[in-house]
Amino acid sequence: MGKRLLSKNLKRTVLSAALLVMLGVMMLFAHRVFVSQALDGLFERERATVALHTENVRGWLGRYRPLAPTYAHYSEIIGLLKNPQDQQRVDDINLQLERWTAASGASDTYLLDRSGMTIAASNWNAAKTFVGNDYAFRPYFQDAMQGRLGRYFAMGTTTGVRGYFFAYPVQDGGPPIGVVVVKIQVGLIEQDLRASPHQVFVSDQDGVILLSGHPRWRLKTLGGLDNEVRRRIGKRRQFAGAPLPDVEIQGLDDGAGERLRLVYAEPDRSNAAVKEFLHLSQGMTVEGWTVHLLVETRGARRQALVYTMLLGLGLLAGLLIAFVFWQRRQFYLSRLAKREQIQRALERRVEERTADLTTINARLAEEVAERTQAEATLRQTQAELVQAGKLAALGQMSTALSHEYNQPLAAIRTYAENAGAFLERGQIDKAESNLGRIAKLTERMASLSKHLTAFARKPKDTTGPVSVKAALDEAIALLRGRIEASGAVVDVRGVDDVIVTGGQVRLQHVFMNLIGNAIDATAAASPPRITVTVREVEGKAAVVVEDNGTGFAEDDVERLFDPFFTRKEPGKGLGLGLSISFNIIRDFGGMISAENISGGGARLIVSLNRPEATLEAAE
Hints:
By secondary structure, this protein is of the alpha+beta class. The protein is built from 16 helices and 18 strands.
């Protein structure tokens, strides 16, 4: 009997050990799968981030790219290159380059003759001026002298400051007679890179880190440079003799060709030890650069661990339940008398499992609360962006507003002086007439001030019944200065007034964006005309803004509402107006679309919902 019991206990022990080993193997395999899936998801989410940083760097270079070609066609620069001994011309060009540099935000602008010698520069009066320096060894000068736009990143041999150089040939009907060079600073773009929650840096074709949000990684290499590359860099004096050590990132040379690459480095602005990052990159073909993004994997691994624990709890619960049923069957067959005791043991186990599930539910509730808070933060950020856009619009209208106020003020002063003169002469009727005109002018100025105050006020997030006519009137009133300055005719047609669901100030901001864009688009039209039509379509309200401008390019129609997409010249728009308007209308439950008009011009259609109470009253 004792041997049989011992054999039975041994079998149970072996079976239990085998089940535990199997469970451990399954958990290990499942954890590896969850980690792989979490990293795949992180990779897919952050591909858009590295693309955004790449476009940001391209945009930074694109703002300054036209400067050198523009300056190269300036007649006075051509005249100086043809007469370099004319000191008066040299002084005039020095001052002109200084003004251009201050206006464009570039670092320096200078003029080289055909030998590479600097004959004029924006820093002509600085202690370390470029005037008199020979830059014939620079690749950007050599490219420009061959008739191409020269582009080059280097550390200044005179200032010791890193920068990007654009060079363009100056021609007078024949071969280049000189080169105009514009140097731009890297400080602002590196501030943008460092503002990212991830580690972002840019390397050239040799693997040298040119731009980096992490200060300690600048002018370091991704995997060492061979002697030939170092000799070429030294010959061109590209980095002014900097040692170019290897960057402190482990794993950059490993896993070549793999879709996911994990690296290890010390994060910026942190005293933490080395952390694991997911490495993503995207090339910039024209510059031969590569934009790198390092994203911490701690969150993804924590998520995979949570999933593994949940799976383990489920498997363990399943095994326990199976074991309980098997045990109960044995107890029923052998010890029916102990049913109550077994029942109590089962109830205790169920309570333990219930406590575990309650803990898990509490964790899930916390995650739901965090997601809700994140959505609220996103809405707050959008509201602040709309407010910033409105203040920018007020800045653009400043010139027109100055005219709107100065004209009535001048008239008030004239009427006041005339009224005083009439009173001295005893002409009371004429004096009263002038005072009445003064009252009307002050009412006009108060009305304009009221419009501006209402527009600048930060809107509430709530939505409700809104008058389309009131929002249009406010928008046109605030744009009156731009409309008159452009000579455009704004014609409002259709239903006299329609009530829609939305927010008064945000809807007014959308109409200002659409009409303001139409004013810009009709700048070359003669005469410029803008038509705003309000109509009701199948229980909804439609506001259609049409202009007789140039219309949209076919490739641009699908990208109009993307953030930062614009065809305006640098400095005249960030490409956020239509994107913000799209999100506002979507928050109202409506939609906005764009199309070209047959025969020329563009059409934007805003569709808004009617309040249910209004629709029921209409029925």
